[in-house]
Amino acid sequence: MPRSKAYSDDLVLEKAMNVFWVHGYEATSVRLLEKEMGINQFSIYASFKNKKNLFVNALRKYREHVIINRFQPLLQEGAGLVELERFLINATVIRKSFDNKKGCLVVNTAGELGEKDPEIAREINQYYDFIRNMLLQVLKNAVAKGEILSNTDVEKQANFFLGVMQGISVAGKTMGKNQLKDFVEIALNQIK
């Protein structure tokens, strides 16, 4: 008779997500995962097969995390340019807070691994597709509300603002708050 787990996959996955977020994929050892997740190597492999599969699941968990905790203002029905501006300004403040020097797990992973692993690259691209589609809807709403010109190429602008969000994540690790605000201001001025 199989033994029941003494832990929650969801809880240990969240712990793993945070370990990868702080240390990156390559620098995270199974020993460190054991310590931080509070389970042994056998349990990690029984639940997640291997380190890479655990990491892919952690990337999915991160996507869920940011949808719930970060992107809600932009996912609200009718969110437009006002909400995008508020979101980007808030992102600069969050990035400069003492507890969030980690940046974005997906941006960090893209910088660390790029397209070395097709499965991880697919997860990265799914995350970026989600953000791009969210931004596309925000920009369409902004056109409908008259916040930006009706002839605005919202497809190109969605790609641009995806890059802006990635840039804030990277630049927020070192740039000052005023520099980040300037970055956001210039980005927003080009679409108004």
Structure in words:
The chain contains ten helices and no strands. The chain is mainly α. It folds into two domains: 55 residues, Orthogonal Bundle (Arc Repressor Mutant, subunit A), CATH 1.10.10; 123 residues, Tetracycline Repressor, domain 2 (Orthogonal Bundle). α1 packs across α4 and α8 packs across α9. The radius of gyration is 19 Å and the shape is elongated. The mean pLDDT is 91.
What average pLDDT do the residues reach? 91
Tally of domains: 2
Principal-axis shape equals elongated
Q: Structural class, judged by helices and strands?
A: mainly alpha
Report the order of strands and helices: HHHHHHHHHH
Helix content: over 70%
Main pleated-sheet profile: none
CATH fold label of the largest domain = Tetracycline Repressor, domain 2
CATH class of the largest domain: Mainly Alpha
Estimate what percentage of residues fall within beta strands.
Answer: under 5%
Named at the architecture level, the CATH assignment of the largest domain is: Orthogonal Bundle
| CATH homologous superfamily designation of the largest domain | Tetracycline Repressor, domain 2
How many distinct helices? 10
List keywords for this structure.
192 residues; mainly alpha; Arc Repressor Mutant, subunit A; Tetracycline Repressor, domain 2; 10 helices; elongated
Write the layout of secondary structure elements.
Layout: H1 9-23, H2 30-37, H3 41-48, H4 51-69, H5 72-75, H6 81-95, H7 105-113, H8 118-144, H9 154-171, H10 177-189
Helix pairs in contact: 1-2, 1-4, 4-8, 6-8, 6-10, 7-8, 8-9, 9-10
